[in-house]
Amino acid sequence: MKSTLALVVALLASLVGAAPASAGTPASEPRPAASDKVFTHVCEQQPRYECGTITVPLDYSRPSGPKLTIAVSRFKATGSARQGVILYNPGGPGGSGLFTAGAVPASVRAAYDFIGFDPRGVGKSSPISCVDPSFFATPGADPNPRSEADKVPFVKRAKSYADGCAARSGAELPYINSLNTARDVDEIRKALGESKITYYGVSYGTYLGTVYGQLFPDRVRRMMLDSTINADPAAVWYQDNLDQDLAFQKRSEIWFDWIGRYDGVFHLGVGRDAVYANYLKARSALAAKAAGPVGPLELDAVVVNSAYYDINWVSNARAFSNFVVKGDATALISYTRDNNPATADGENSNAVYTAVECNDARWPRSWSVWNRDNTAVAQRAPIETWANAWMNLPCAFWSLPQPSALRITGQGLPPILMLQGTLDAATPYQGALRTHQLLPSSRMIIEDGGGSHGVYNAPWVHNTCVDNYATAYLLTGAIPAADVTCAGHSLPDPGAPSTSRSLPRR
Length: 506
Known about the structure:
- This protein is of the alpha/beta class and 506 residues long.
- It is 42% helix and 13% strand.
- Strand 1 (39-42) and strand 2 form a beta hairpin.
- A 10-stranded mixed β-sheet has the order 1-2-3-5-4-6-7-8-9-10, sandwiched between helices.
């Protein structure tokens, strides 16, 4: 929720490799000649991809009016039995989708041209801005207020951010929303000469896919939604964020409990309560004196990152332990610098996140409503609630009209496959079930006890049961007759080597 998807995209790009098509795939579908007019050159930084642009209307109610440029990428199908295109969105809002073919395994890359894109406003697609990147300099102020007076600077900051979006993004700002991005997806489809697409979205990408399917159901061949956002208009986006706070608290406490099982490794106490007490101790120490760029906000970011991905549990626990036990903040400082939000890319990503969420749906315009609701939730979920509130509070001061969120019925859609961990904090399970209800043609593959965000083909999950159902669906359209539950993947072993993954928005 707090930083860009740049490292995630780099990881996905690095996983790409060629492989023959799997047995039993259908006869090859010819690649439309129109697609070669879109992809005009080999991508400079990723030579295994082809790059290009399309132009789309700024305002779809004025198709002959001003235009935006949308950057697209293609990783050509590596096998002889091409099935068409997969169009992919990795999440956000505000994340780049270029160079992401590693999101699917080699057998799927053999069967499809994999199409990535930067959504409007993001990266290479007519980017917007709201503030100077220094707005996000670390250490940030402690987000958790001790009094009503502590909240005043954050309210002023949110208003200044909303004003900055209006001033710096100007004419483009009103048109940065999920509806228009979904329309852009269909413009990509048309530019490629495809009658239908297979759509695959993760996190926010699931909401974008749901919107696309609502607008263009006859253009969907297959659709896979991984870690699904609650698309009920009553939840988008204000209630979704409050629900997220509670889920992050639960998932963070699961991490604290796990640390407490390994006191001999981390020396942070036995049991969840002891570890939680050390977290509060560390937080107080950083509030009194920051460790370089690391204050309470940055420590909380490490905790939230652990709630996103248990592959990071070991490295994050060691960084936490080193600070508490040894007074050594080196690893926390390194994490903060590696995930620095005060960059041009980070600022752009946050600008698009804010614009999409503020433009998609209605938000309370009264600070008193935000204060009441977040105060109540913070009593149950103190780790993330106020940081999340301050991040979204610009929507209370948004200068543009806010419509009701799109009503989702799922009418006319083909069978959809949904993948969901029951302990996912970023897209809570109950919200995913609500979207499941809104999409009558959907089936869900449930990872029971899975809490890492993004399930399919994920090196941070390795769940063969989930992967097999998902790959079969993409290659053959096979969908189970009823929802399926797979056992959750194993939790990390602190004695084994670990890798880390950066934090996306959702």
